[in-house]
Write a structure and sequence with these properties.
InterPro entries: P_dom, PCSK9_ProteinaseK-like, Peptidase_S8/S53_dom, Peptidase_S8/S53_dom_sf, Peptidase_S8_Asp-AS, Peptidase_S8_His-AS, Peptidase_S8_Ser-AS, Peptidase_S8_subtilisin-like. It contains 8 helices and 94 strands. By secondary structure, it is mostly beta strands. It has 8 domains: about 110 residues, Alpha-Beta Plaits (2-Layer Sandwich), CATH 3.30.70; about 290 residues, Rossmann fold (3-Layer(aba) Sandwich); about 110 residues, Galactose-binding domain-like (Jelly Rolls, Sandwich), CATH 2.60.120; about 70 residues, Immunoglobulins (Immunoglobulin-like, Sandwich), CATH 2.60.40; about 90 residues, Immunoglobulin-like; about 110 residues, Jelly Rolls (Sandwich); about 100 residues, Jelly Rolls (Sandwich), CATH 2.60.120.380; about 100 residues, Sandwich (Jelly Rolls), CATH 2.60.120.380.
């Protein structure tokens, strides 16, 4: 209702005055005993124990005053309001509320009451056609301004909004939720009321303002019910947080509430336009809130017959309702048979009725007005809408007394036409004149400074003619004077009109053509007025870096490109753009109508870019507001996608329903939270959590080219997509290879290029089978799938992945127990365009059982791809070990898998027969060990040994070694120790007596951390170095002799820190436990070449290994089996920093050794056929080097002389690129050495490394062969 007329305003004022009077009258008694009035809105359904308290003006914060009042009078403060009004909501008893009402700090106490939506019944559909025209005859069109509400934010105060609905095109978001039941502003009502209303405001299909931003302010529950206090909370939030220009739609109502109306009035006074539903009680709207509020725009509902909508029958009730009416209404809008979005799905729609549906039409119209004129006040917005409304078309006898006969009108005035011509040919008589007129009626503006008139006239001598333009106000402008000297023919000129910019363009314009000289006559052919340039259309704004899809992109401080393009055929000369609240817009010149700018948002969150296009004379278009969301952090790089099963190679693979494994990897080094992926466009994206590489299984449901779109996600921000296209084989790409028979004849089949071989076999539930591929001649690797009678994969692998076979090799597939009886399929799919032949067999598994006491269970496999399946009865939570003996000669590698009673699978493992396997039985029951040839060799045999793992107790870094006795082949012993993150430990083995029929074998170890990850020690001889521990806690050390049995003693030790060593210096280190290592540190420079010399070791401690670790802990150098006095040269250091050098025994001993660290002795350079250069090697372990320049193709030899160190030495020659031309040639004399032909031109480096860390010198030269 209008704020300057109507009794609603008087009623509201009267209520407030009476309350104040009551408060003053009650404030004189004692504070403790006095009670004031608690107001309950007439006809309202009060909420027991909930009250709305309005405070008098004051300087203290609301929260502080509310807390003091609650403490003094009792009750609990639920929510405070500070923007729309000063007040709070209180949970209290009725007596506490009355006492609070008497407090002099309190203005009013009102009982909280129920508020509900306005109309939800479903009736036949109707569209938006009515509101864009004055006529009652519909024309099947809906026209709206170019801006379509762009730049305006409409707050939908309702049951919430399904913001993901396709109607909203990513323009909808959640702002506030007063209900607090976990729905977070989304629409959970069965009627979809809030979503329907939002669709009418700004939906792409059903909305009035199709480009407006929509914000959900949820104040009603899933049952379409709320309280006045929740309404006030919503109003308060909007008042504080509104993005202006702003409109609020309230399709809700309840009994009169002075508190609610005061909050809304104050919000309107802050500059926000409110549109409210009149209500559906078929009564006077002035009796309800917020419909009775004078300052809001109150809207009643009309029907398709241009009547006040009424006679609504409620299902299951005799109640007949209709739109409210009366003086508090401002206008009517369609509210019956209205189709819009529904919250059931992102594509759902529904038909509803009620003033709830009428109000959003007007809210959308208000957004259209504010998009054109964003600085209008709410009163001016209302004036504009009422001024445009269609008057007198509603049936007066349906309106009831006092109702306005005004129907919403959103129509767009016809576009301005400021270019008008007259092409009627008019003769110009000799010595006479002619006048031609143009009536301009559709150019409602002043004449532009660029106005011009074009004239075409025929005459043998154009100098005879004069041209005068008569403007609508009767004044004349001389365009051309007669000129007797101009003897050319005809006039075809355009004349500028620069001095008419103060004149209205509309009116009658005249052109007078006069012939001033005799003898000739002519004609006016046509003339055209251009009084203003064509209006430029709205620009089109786009950005791939910051797309307007409601999702976060980029990041604060991350630059992005934005492109502006014309939105109409009118040429664009430039654009202006303004990011958020920048003081002034920035202009950019267009090239062929297009401009691209780079912007760097300084902060995260929702941002708005306002853009205008300008025509050639600088006249702007309406503005376009481009909303985008800046992420808290930059998006990750696009992921890397790959698949062995369905590679992106344009070749057919697999088949419809056949699963494949796809691998996603991060595209950069930054952390990620996961990925989202979508197969083609007809499916919903799937999300998977991951911090790095991940594999997913996807079964394409149809043949043909399929596209997988994958995004990495970090902090909720998706990367740019990676599209991965692959081809799924169909019937045309499948070769039928016939039937396989269990234990029957093999099938031989040829597979042409780009074809998939399909074989079939009849299987019975309970069958345990093995599939063998023998004698393959395929020239690429192949994938093999097995599908059950229903087309489901038969696999024990993660993601139901297929089995893989190398080219020209054999192999097998151990199938899980069949669960269905029927015909199965086997698909053999060579990679890419691979082709060749395969031989396929299907065999029953050889079965049996064993236990931990049997002296090896014998098994024999007689066919390619056959497996032995050996059952064991396991106890719960027990570690078991598997060992093998007596393998046949063809057994190069074993394939092993352990299948649990619950279907879980351990393995598979591929091991040599001399190795062993351990597995954990979590649950008790029958486990099955499946054993086969890794390469499907046949025939073959062996023995399987089952053992329980030995628990060998604790092992420490300071105690004695742990003696182990391993009695059965494959048996393991498990020890425990407490480790610390970052710790480096070592193993030493002594008293080794582990034997097999083929001889003694070394022990092997593994370390299992607290998190279950396994580390394999770096073993050299009888000692091993455990990789750095990554967790603190209890670790398991597991030792086995593989197939060997016997005894061994295991020692655990920490590194001995040996301090630092300088390049050119030495140090002595000492170890005290078998296998223990000592470490020293030094500072190195990237590219530096260094040597280590080992001398003066104690007796027995003369077999060493050396490891070099970079500053980040990675191993970058290793020298093993250094015997006695020896040396080792490291490759160039990769980075600058502090390195660690670890020295330890390879024979399980301990003792003392001297380390000398040196840089190579540089003898400078030599020339071909020049003098030799002498390398002085002064330090133990030091190398010497000298360089020479060589040309590609040179055949050279090195010469040596004057050697003073004894013993052999190693010769290395490096190419200019650092690769080796000669790699450690062993030299025992000083004879010349012929080099291979030089591969390139450049500087070559000759390195001499004396054996046994000897010192001395040697002379080196170079000559041609």
């Amino acid at each position: 209702m209008r704020r300057w007329v109507g009794r609603g305003r008087v009623l509201a004022a009267g209520i407030v005055l009476s309350v104040l009077a009551g408060v003053l009258a009650l404030s004189g008694g004692p504070a403790r005993a006095a009670e004031g009035q608690v107001h309950t809105p007439a006809g309202a359904q009060a909420i027991a124990g909930s009250y709305i308290v309005l405070l008098k003006p004051g300087g203290r914060p609301v929260a502080e005053v509310a807390g003091a009042l609650a403490e003094q009078h009792g009750g609990e403060v639920d929510r405070t309001y500070g923007a729309a009004l000063r007040g709070f909501t209180l949970s209290a008893s009725e007596r506490q509320a009355r006492r609070l009402a008497a407090d002099p700090r309190v203005d009013r106490v009102e009982a909280d009451s129920v508020v509900s939506t306005e109309g939800t019944q479903t009736t036949p559909p109707w569209n938006l056609d009515r509101v864009d025209q004055h006529s009652t005859v519909l024309n099947d069109t809906f026209r709206y301004p170019d801006g379509a509400g762009a730049g305006v934010t409409v707050y939908v105060m309702d049951t919430g909004v399904r913001t993901s609905h396709e109607e909203f095109q990513s323009r909808a978001r959640v702002g506030f939720d007063a209900i607090g039941d976990g729905w977070n502003g989304q629409d959970c009502s069965t009627s979809g009321h809030g979503t329907h209303v939002a669709g009418l405001v700004g939906g792409a299909t059903y909305g009035v303002a199709k480009q407006a931003r929509l914000v959900s302010v949820r104040v009603l529950s899933c049952e379409n019910v709320g309280s006045v206090s929740q309404i006030i909370a919503g109003v308060d939030w909007v008042t504080e947080h509104a993005e202006r220009p702003a409109v609020v739609n309230m399709s809700l109502g309840g009994s009169e509430s002075a508190a609610e109306e005061l909050a809304i009035k104050n919000s309107i006074d802050s500059g926000i336009t409110y549109v409210v539903a009149a209500g559906n009680e078929d009564r006077d709207a002035c009796r309800f809130s917020p419909a009775g509020l004078a300052e809001a725009i109150t809207v009643g509902a009309s029907n398709p017959l241009d009547e006040r909508a009424r006679d609504w029958e409620e299902p299951g009730s005799s109640l007949v309702t209709g739109s409210n009416y009366g003086e508090c209404l401002d206008m009517f809008a369609p509210g019956e048979s209205i189709k819009s979005a529904h919250n059931a799905l992102d594509t759902a729609t529904v038909i509803q009725r009620g003033t709830s549906m009428a109000s959003p039409h007007v809210a959308g119209a208000a957004a259209l007005v504010l998009s054109e004129s964003p600085n209008l006040t709410p009163e001016q917005v209302a004036d504009t809408l009422l001024g445009r409304a269609t008057t007198g078309v509603l049936r007066q006898d349906t309106l009831e007394t006092g109702s306005p006969n005004k129907l919403l009108y959103t129509g767009v005035p016809p576009p301005a036409v400021c270019t008008v011509g007259n092409d009627t040919r008019r003769p110009v008589p000799d010595l006479g004149s002619v006048t031609s007129s143009i009536e301009v009626t559709t150019c409602p503006r002043k004449v532009a400074p660029t106005a011009r008139v074009r004239v075409r006239a025929e005459h043998p001598v154009r100098g005879d003619l004069s041209l005068r333009l008569v403007t609508p106000d009767g004044s004349e402008r001389v365009l051309k004077e007669a000129d007797g000297t101009d003897t050319a023919a005809d006039v075809h000129e355009t004349y500028p009109l620069p001095d008419l910019s103060t004149m209205d363009a509309n009116g009658t314009w005249k052109l007078v053509v006069r012939d001033h000289f005799g003898f000739d006559q002519g004609a006016l052919v046509d003339w055209k007025l251009v009084l203003a340039e064509p209006a430029v259309g709205l620009p089109v704004v786009s950005s791939t870096d910051y797309p307007a899809n409601g999702q976060p992109h980029g990041g604060a401080g991350v630059a992005g490109e934005f492109t502006f393009r014309p939105g109409s055929p009118v040429p664009v000369a430039k654009y202006s753009y303004q990011l958020d609240g920048e003081a002034q817009p920035t202009e950019v010149t267009a090239t062929d109508g297009v401009a691209t700018v780079t912007l760097t948002p300084e902060g995260a969150g929702r941002r708005s870019l306002t853009v205008r296009a300008f025509n050639g004379v600088g006249e702007p278009s309406a503005r376009v507001v481009y909303d985008f969301v800046v992420a808290d952090q930059p998006p990750p790089a696009s992921p890397v996608v790959s698949s062995f099963d369905y590679p992106a190679d344009e070749h057919p693979n697999g088949g419809a329903g056949v699963p494949g494994t796809f691998t996603f990897k991060p595209g950069d080094e930054g952390p990620i939270d996961g990925y989202s992926y979508q197969l083609d466009t007809g499916t919903e994206p799937t999300e998977v959590s991951a911090t790095g590489e991940v594999t997913v299984g996807i079964a394409p449901d149809a043949a043909g080219t399929r596209t997988l779109t994958v995004r990495a996600v970090r902090g909720g921000v998706p990367s740019a997509p990676t599209t991965f296209s692959f081809v799924v084989a169909g019937a045309a790409e499948t070769v039928d290879g016939g039937m396989l028979a269990v234990d029957g004849q093999e099938v031989n089949a040829d597979i042409p290029a780009d074809r998939v071989l399909r074989l079939r076999f009849d299987g019975t539930a309970g069958d345990r089978l093995g599939l063998g591929l023998a004698e393959s001649t395929l020239d690429t690797f192949a994938k093999v799938w097995v599908l059950d009678p229903d087309g489901n994969p038969v696999s024990t692998k993660e993601n139901n992945a297929p089995s893989y076979f190398s080219s020209n090799s054999s192999g097998g597939v151990a199938l899980p127990e069949l669960t269905t009886t029927g015909t199965y399929q086997v698909l053999v799919d060579p990679d890419g365009a691979g082709t060749g032949a395969v031989t396929v067999l299907l065999s029953s598994n050889a079965t049996g059982t064993t236990d931990t006491t049997e002296q090896g269970h014998p098994f024999e496999l007689t066919r390619s791809g056959q497996y032995a399946e050996i059952g064991i009865d396991a106890e719960a939570d027990t570690w078991y070990n598997l060992g093998f003996t007596e393998p046949s000669d063809r057994f190069r590698y074993l394939w092993i898998e352990v299948r649990g009673p619950d279907g879980t699978v351990d393995g598979p493992w591929a091991i040599q027969p001399s190795q062993a396997v351990r597995f954990h039985a979590g649950e008790p029951g029958r486990y099955r060990v499946v054993v086969g040839y890794y390469f499907a060799e046949s025939p073959g045999s062996g023995k399987l040994w089952l053992s329980e793992e030995i628990d060998a107790g604790e092992i420490t870094t300071s105690g004695q070694g742990t003696a182990l006795s391993l009695h059965r082949p494959g048996q393991h012993a498990r020890m425990r120790f407490d480790g610390t993150q970052g710790q480096r430990l070592n193993l030493g083995y002594t008293d080794i007596d582990l034997s097999t029929p083929g001889g003694t074998v070394p022990p092997k170890a593994s370390v299992i951390g607290p998190d279950g990850t396994t580390k394999t020690p770096d073993r050299r001889g009888d000692s091993a170095r455990i990789p750095v521990l990554t967790r603190t806690g209890s670790h398991d050390l597991v030792v086995t002799g593989g197939a060997g049995t016997g005894t061994v003693t295991v020692w655990l030790s920490e590194d001995v820190p040996g301090g630092t060593i300088a390049i050119g210096g030495d140090t002595t280190v000492t170890t005290t436990r078998p296998g223990q290592h000592a470490t020293v540190r030094f500072d190195g420079t990237a590219g530096q070449r260094l040597n280590i010399g080992l001398t003066d070791m104690t007796s027995g401690f003369d077999n060493q290994s050396v490891r070099l670790y970079a500053p980040d802990g990675t191993k970058v150098g290793y020298g093993g089996n250094l015997t006695g006095a020896d040396s080792f040269g490291f490759d160039p250091l990769p980075v600058t920093g502090t390195y660690e050098l670890a020295v330890g025994p390879t024979n399980g001993q301990f003792g003392t050794v001297r380390l000398t660290l040196s840089a190579p002795a540089d003898a400078g350079s030599i020339t071909i056929s020049g003098a030799q250069a002498t390398m002085p090697i002064d330090l133990p372990g030091q190398d010497g080097h000298v360089s020479f320049a060589g040309a590609a193709g040179d055949r050279l030899r090195l010469t040596f002389g004057d050697r003073t160190f004894s013993g052999p030495y190693y010769l290395t020659v490096l190419n200019p690129d650092g690769t080796k031309l000669v790699d450690r040639a062993y030299r025992t004399d000083d004879s010349p050495y012929d080099l291979p032909e030089l591969p390139a031109s450049g500087e070559y480096l000759v390195i001499i490394d004396p054996q046994s860390a000897a010192t001395g010198s040697i002379a080196v030269g170079v000559e041609r062969q």
